[in-house]
Amino acid sequence: MKTDISSRNDIKLIITKFYDKLLADKKMYPFFEDIIKRNHLDYHLEIITDFWNDVLFDTITYSNNVMQKHLDKNTFIKFQKEHFSIWVSYFSQTIDTYFEGEKSTQMKTRALSIATVMKLKLNIYKK
Question: Name one GO molecular function term (predicted).
Answer without folding.
Answer: oxygen binding
